[in-house]
Design a protein that fits this description.
The chain is α+β, with helices and mostly antiparallel strands and 114 residues long. The protein has two helices and six strands. The strands form two sheets. It has a three-stranded mixed β-sheet, with helices on one face. The protein has a three-stranded antiparallel β-sheet with strand order 4-3-5, with no helix packed on it.
């Protein structure tokens, strides 16, 4: 489960932010995880809940926004929205794509306790 590794990287970022900004706790974390990112959002939330038990992050909530996958179909040339990397083009049924959006993962917002 690579979501645990992703979670550990997020925790490292949060530890560094706490050190630099000198806040006492985190209430809420908002992440954007595109549908083409190959990250299972539910598994990431679970990993966050498990790995933060007993730490300064315990009790923080994590919110995940899932932007759609946007691709250019290399078979018909259309820019289309797909749900996952294994989907077919809704216009022509092709399966060769160039991602143009929805493959990102980023920290969008943190609600902290000073």
């Amino acid at each position: 489960m690579h979501e645990l590794t992703v979670c550990e990287a997020i925790l490292d970022i949060l530890d560094e932010e706490k050190r630099v900004r000198r806040f006492s706790a985190l209430r809420r974390l908002k992440l954007e995880i595109g549908r083409l990112s190959c990250v299972d959002a539910d598994a990431l939330v679970y990993a966050f809940e498990v790995t933060t038990r007993g730490s300064w992050l315990e009790g923080a909530t994590i919110e995940v926004v899932r932007p759609p996958g946007l691709v250019k179909c290399l078979d018909c040339g259309a820019d289309v929205e797909i749900e996952d990397r294994l989907a077919d083009c809704p216009r022509c049924g092709g399966s060769r794509f160039e991602p143009i959006g929805g493959d990102q993962m980023r920290l969008v917002e943190m609600e902290i306790v000073p």
